[in-house]
Amino acid sequence: MIRVKMRLPCLCLGLWLLTAPLLVQGLDSPMLTHGAAATAHPLATQAADDVYRRGGNSVDAAVAASLVLSVVEPTMSGLGGRAQAIVRLESGEFVGYNGMTEIPKDFTPTADMPSSGYTTVATPGLVALLWALHQGHGKLPFAELVQPAMRYAQEGFVLLPGEAARHQSKLESLRADKGMSAHFLSYQDDKQGVATAAGARLVQPVLAKTLAAIASGGTDAFYRGDIARLIGADMRSNGGFVTEQDLADYKVLPGRYISFPYRDLMIHTLAAPAGGGIVARALTILNLYDVAALSDSSWAVLVSQALALSLDAVSTDYEERDLAKLSDPQWARDASQAIRLPQLKQLSQRPVLSDQLASATDWIGTPAAHTSHFVTADCSGQTVSLTQTIGPVFGANVATPELGFAYAATMGGYLRTGKQIPGDRPRTSIAPVIITRNNQLVAALGAAGGIRIPSAIVQTISRYVDQGKSLSEALAAPRVHPKNIIDENNQRIVTLDAFDAEMTAGGWSQEQLKAWTAAGFKVKEIDSHASFGRVHALALGDAELAGAADPDWEGSATQPANCRISD
User: Fold this and answer.
1) Which helix (H) or strand (E) segment is 272 a member of?
2) What is d(CA 330, CA 324) in angstroms, rounded to the nearest whole number?
3) Would you place residue 491 in the very low, low, confident or very high pLDDT band (cuts 50, 70, 90)?
């Protein structure tokens, strides 16, 4: 009997028992799974695994997982949001998908743009991306892949502590908007509405109807049918810019994927408007060093400075028109001249123990960042690395009452960097990655967490490749991030001698902090939960596909798939 291994922090144990009846359905099937997944929520992971057991491929699993995440983590992503994906096909070819939100044709910026509200909403891209991905490479009927999300929306699901904390953190914003309050608040004992608590069930019947329409009508239902008319009417009534024509005209664009060498591997990711260019620059710098020979303290200093230089390069090469520049060894050699690398001794490492992981109370007051990433792969080698988001927690904090999902924040104060002109798809830190060796799959990963997405990805890759850690160890190891400041002109100022250090359970030790300080670095201690990116990844080794979920979140991975066994 094959069972799915759900890798959960101890914070979820009690809620896991509550949720278990929903998760174990179909696990007694005698058919061995032929694919793997790692996602930000156990129910999304389960949906992917169930797809494999029904004979679906990694694209089918990705569509199902994405839609479930849109239901069970509405603070992080959803139908009103944006996404980027990179796909390795069975043939070994790569395809990129740009499903970012697009600035409407009638958008007119003002001097004082808000960070939330209807005026920040751009044309959503997630549904179009999932449809295009499925039409190009899916196997099972699209309508079948929508069913798990519909079920959790209609019947409800148990809210995990992290998601519940994020709902609570936005209580006043939820109360302020008619659609948000109708979809996400309970009015049983409070006329103002209360947020759903951890362990309680969140039911979203309106969202279930929207998903049912998409299941039957596909992308046309969202962009040209009744859903589009409802979006357009809601925008007109509330000062928003998105029109029915914007929706009808929306198209998924090819993702600008780049491939570059790192050690004996090839890294494949997406450039602007995605954030893979930062990953490419940082790894190209690291490729100049014998990273494996460094102590962990010196490694952290090197990584922080490589990331700082890469982030700084974004401000001068915002559009990244010349993709070859992103992994140019000469640029890396020139940039690395500024790096100061003290030889710090190896210090003892604190193991990450199960009783050190987050508890339910750790989430209180720390609605960490935003965005959701997942990976799926099947035994053919077809792999999907996909990141989806609505921006900050609950996005623009507005929702159409008849539809059930929050819209992403795109224009105005949130994504304020760069040109905000009609037709533009503003830049993001999203950076899904696939790694190969001799054109064979090695690993796939990505992250959530705003500007720290590329940072988390680079560190995970270096831990896995250079330090020889297992995928789970690489995800659990502590991280750093270069200190960055936004000036009065909204420009990012990056310094090489200052960085933030993760000081949560299993993080850096005080001994290491003292060593960095003695070497002349300014180190800020950050002990906020889930503040250094959340990575979900999988790897292929010895014909076994195995996933790993970031221990600083509430995600999970499927049981490893044995790719030697034919189903």
Assistant:
1) none
2) 11
3) low
Domains of the chain are 257-364+431-562 (1.10.246.130)
- Quickly tell me which residue has 């044995």 as its tokens: 562
Task: Please give the residue that has the higher pLDDT: either 473 or 358.
Answer: 473
Q: Is the pLDDT of residue 17 over 50?
A: no
Question: Cα separation of 374 and 9, whole Å?
Answer: 17
The C-alpha atoms of residue 475 and residue 456 are separated, in whole angstroms, by 9
Residue found by looking up tokens 């060093």 in the block = 289
For residue 8, what is the DSSP state? -
Q: Which residue has the tokens 């793997």?
A: 36
Cα–Cα distance measured from residue 539 to residue 559, given in angstroms and rounded to the nearest whole number: 12
Give the integer Cα–Cα distance in Å for 65 and 536.
Answer: 13
Q: What's the sign of the alpha-carbon dihedral 137, 141, 146, 148?
A: negative
Residues 6+ apart with CB under 8 A from 85: 62, 96, 97, 99, 129, 133, 255, 384, 385, 386, 387, 432
End-to-end CA distance of the chain: 14
What DSSP element (H or E) covers 377? Answer: strand 372-378
pTM metric for this prediction: 0.92
Do residues 96 and 386 lie in contact, with contact meaning Cβ atoms separated by under 8 Å?
A: no
Beta pairing class for 522-526 and 492-502: parallel
Separation CA 490–CA 493 (nearest Å): 9
Per DSSP, 345 falls in state P
Backbone angles phi, psi at 457, to 5 degrees: -65, -50
* Cα 166-172-177 angle, rounded to 5 deg: 105
- The gap from C-alpha 157 to its chain's centroid, in whole angstroms, comes to 21
- The total number of residues shown for the chain amounts to 567
Q: Are 457 and 447 in contact (CB under 8 A)?
A: yes
Furthest C-alpha separation in the chain: 65
Burial of residue 264, with CB atoms counted within 10 A of its CB: 0-12 exposed, 13-18 middle, 19 or more buried: exposed
Give the Cα separation of 419 and 443 in Å (integer).
35
CA–CA dist 399, 326 (Å, integer): 38
CB neighbour class for 290 (10 Å; exposed up to 12, middle 13-18, buried from 19): exposed
Measure the CA–CA gap between 404 and 399, rounded to whole angstroms: 7
From CA 184, how far away is CA 234, in angstroms rounded? 18
Q: How confident is the model at residue 209 (pLDDT cuts 50, 70, 90)?
A: very high
